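Dear Dr. K.,

Following up on our conversation at the group meeting, I've run the structure prediction for Cyclase dehydrase from Hydrocarboniphaga effusa AP103. I'm pasting the input sequence below exactly as I used it, so you can double-check it against your construct before we proceed with anything downstream. Let me know if the numbering doesn't match what you have in your notebook.
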Amino acid sequence: MMTKLPVSPDRSAGALGWFSLALGAAELLAPALLANRLGLRGRSTLLQLYGLREIGAGLGLLSGRHRSAWLWARVAGDVLDLATLAAARPGRGRAVGLAAVAGVTVLDVVSASAAGPQSRERNKPEPRDYSDRIGLAQPPEQMRGLARTESSAALAWERRNIA
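The predicted C-alpha cells came back this morning:
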C-alpha cells in the first residue's frame, strides 16, 4: 500500500522543485567536492550533467504544468543516481549518499503517485445538487409564452409612460 503524503501533491511537488534546483546548483558549482565525498572521484563532469537534469526537473515542477510527469522524471533520475552510487568506491560517503537518495526516491514515488491522473479524479469537486430548486414558478404549460407576454406588457407600459 502506498503511503499518503502529509501535504497536498501540489505543495510536495513545489518543495521537490526547490530541492531539485538547490541540488542541481550544488552539483553544477561544486562537482569535484561532491564527487570526492561520494566516492566518485574523477566523475565531476557526470555530476554536472546530473545537476543540469536536476535543475530541469526543478523548473518543470515549479512551472506547475505536467507535475506528475516531472515527478516521474525525478524518480527516473533517482534510479540513475542510485546506480551511479552503487558503482562508486565503497566508503562512508557512498553509504550516506545511497541512504539519502533512497529516502528521496521514496518521497518522489509517493509524490508522483499522488499527483497522477487518478488523483485528479479523486480531488474533483462533487457535482452541485440542484434537485431542491424549482426552475419555473408554475408548470411549463402555464409558463409558455409568459415571458413574451410580460415583456410586451412592460414595453407597452414603458411607451405609455415615457412618451
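Two things stood out to me. The helical segments are 9-29, 31-38, 44-63, 67-86, 92-114, 117-122, 140-143, 146-162. Residues 73 and 131 are 45 Å apart (CA to CA).

Best regards,
J.T.
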